[in-house]
Design brief:
There is one protein chain. The chain is built from 18 helices and eight strands. The protein is of the alpha/beta class. The chain has two domains: 354 residues, Glycosidases (TIM Barrel, Alpha-Beta Barrel), CATH 3.20.20; 95 residues. An eight-stranded parallel β-sheet has the order 3-2-1-8-7-6-5-4. Strand 5, helix 7 and strand 6 form a beta-alpha-beta unit. Keywords: Hydrolase. It is an enzyme of class 3 (hydrolase). This is beta-N-acetylhexosaminidase.
Length: 483
């Protein structure tokens, strides 16, 4: 499929720092690479990695230190030097887990069991949001654009105060959402009249244009439509086109798109599929090519989620997803992912393939893209972890036939065969342990030690633990059977 290149408008890359926050030095290396790839801005979601002060200091991460003020200023200066705008993303309604998980903030939840949604009726809620924004804006000199999140506001309307509010005639959950976002947007404009405000669009998708027009949001915010699927279904239903047209007819004519280069396949994905993400961008190109003249597409944010939310597991780390990002950017630049676009990616990154699973070095290690060595090691380890011999070792014929839970419990086993099982399990464990040590040693150069520990415990420990249990059980059982 071939479309015109991405129309005029910024190409932003999303840095999700609520999981696996890169060390400051690695962030600079990434910005250097982004500038070569054609990136024009960064959408930075700090969450608990921002150095909040005063009463908000509790929001800072504890597993690793938050970025210092100097590091955040340095990031901006370097990005600006490379021609990139930095746009902070601060959640103001949904996905407030990193705030509302703290006991002093529990009373600001919409419902007790939903950690992510702010109670819009609490007077302190807007005050909290504005204090977060004030600290972020203060540490971004010359800031012109701010993203206020507002996506996936789960359980809205389910709190007791909301139920009372909704009992009044004409009050709806849609209005409840709009009233809070409008209040926040107006407070931002009052504090910083020049500020452009972006917000996610998903909570507004089902609203009529009349509801949107009457909300007070018109002229205050620019919706960012996000869709990460490789099957946007542009031609059959034209969902995103119709949404763009609806927002425009509601006088919200300045709009953004959001695609994805990683973090949107499955919550636990370790290695991304470049093809999947390229297809997502091809669909967005088709949307852009079909836009009515009165729709102003301000740009596209290529998201790279590191977690689905603050309390979920890690998605793909940035290094292993850089071939996907480069391929997606070249797709936007060329209007297609043809041989020329693919060749540019492989040459720029120094690899043989745009698919991380099959990429090999084409030259010396030093010429690989930043984090390329870690990407290769992760792919190798991931392949090993997925191998059936290791992942399903407990279901092998010999384990099920001669070392079943029944046999282990009664310690009635055939020593000869169980010792063969032990030898094979021990071999796998030794191979995995060696790979883990290599990956860890490389990972801590780019990420905090806590990230390496978390990644290993999430991806490796669940596979190694059954093998370790088997070897220990065999040791105990054989001891009972052999003099």
């Amino acid at each position: 499929m071939s479309c015109p290149p991405w129309p005029k408008g910024k190409k932003l890359v999303h840095l999700d720092l609520k999981g696996a926050p890169p060390r400051a030095e690695y962030l600079h290396q990434l910005i250097e690479l982004f500038s070569k790839l054609g990136v024009e801005g960064l959408l930075v979601e700090y969450e608990d990695m921002f150095p909040y002060e005063g009463q908000l200091k509790m929001l800072q991460a504890t597993a690793q230190p938050a970025y210092s003020q100097g590091e955040i200023l340095s990031l901006q200066e370097f990005a600006k030097f490379k021609g990139m705008e930095v746009i902070p993303l601060v959640q103001t309604f949904g996905h407030m887990e990193f705030v509302l998980k703290h006991r002093p903030m529990w009373g600001l939840r919409e419902v007790a069991h939903c950690v992510g949604t702010l109670n819009p009726h609490k007077e302190e809620a807007v005050g909290l949001v504005m204090e977060m924004l004030r600290q972020v804006v203060a540490l971004h000199p010359g800031l012109n654009t701010l993203h206020i999140g507002a996506d996936e506001v789960y359980m809205l309307g389910e709190g007791e105060e909301s139920k009372l509010w909704l009992a009044s005639p004409g009050c709806t959950v849609e209005q409840l959402f709009l009233s809070h976002v409008t209040k926040v947007a107006k407070a931002i404009k009052e504090a910083w009249p020049h500020m452009t405000i972006i917000m996610w669009d998903d909570m507004m998708r089902g609203m009529s244009k009349d509801t949107l027009k009457a909300s007070g949001l018109v002229g205050l915010v620019q919706p960012m439509l996000w869709d990460y699927s490789p099957n946007l279904d542009v031609k059959r239903t034209g969902k995103n086109l119709s949404l763009l047209e609806k927002y425009c007819s509601a006088s919200m004519s300045e709009l953004w798109a959001a695609s994805s280069f990683k973090g949107s396949t499955a919550v636990y994905t370790c290695v991304p599929s470049t093809q999947r993400h390229v297809e997502n961008h091809l669909q967005w190109l088709e949307v852009a090519a079909s836009l009515p003249a009165n729709v102003k597409l301000k740009g596209i944010a290529i998201t790279g989620w590191q977690r689905y939310d603050h309390l979920s597991v890690l998605c793909e780390l940035i290094p292993v997803a850089l071939p996907s990002l480069a391929a997606c950017l070249q797709t936007l630049i060329h209007g297609q992912f043809n041989t020329e676009a693919e060749s540019k990616v492989t040459q720029m990154l120094g690899v043989s393939s745009v698919e991380a699973e099959t990429m090999e070095r084409t030259s010396a290690v030093d010429s690989l893209f930043p984090g390329g060595r870690l990407a290769q090691l992760i792919v190798e380890l991931d392949s090993l972890l997925k191998s059936e011999d290791i992942r399903f070792f407990e279901n092998s014929m010999f384990v099920r036939g001669w070392f079943s839970p029944y046999q282990r419990q009664r310690k009635m086993v055939t020593p000869l065969i169980t010792m063969q099982i032990n030898k094979q399990a021990s071999t796998y464990l030794a191979i995995l342990q060696q790979k883990v040590e290599t990956v860890t040693a490389e990972m801590v150069h780019l990420y905090p030690d806590s990230t390496a520990q978390e990644w290993i415990e999430e991806h490796v420990t669940p596979v190694m633990s059954p093998l370790e249990r088997i070897t220990e059980d065999i040791r105990i059982c054989v001891k009972e059977m052999v003099p």
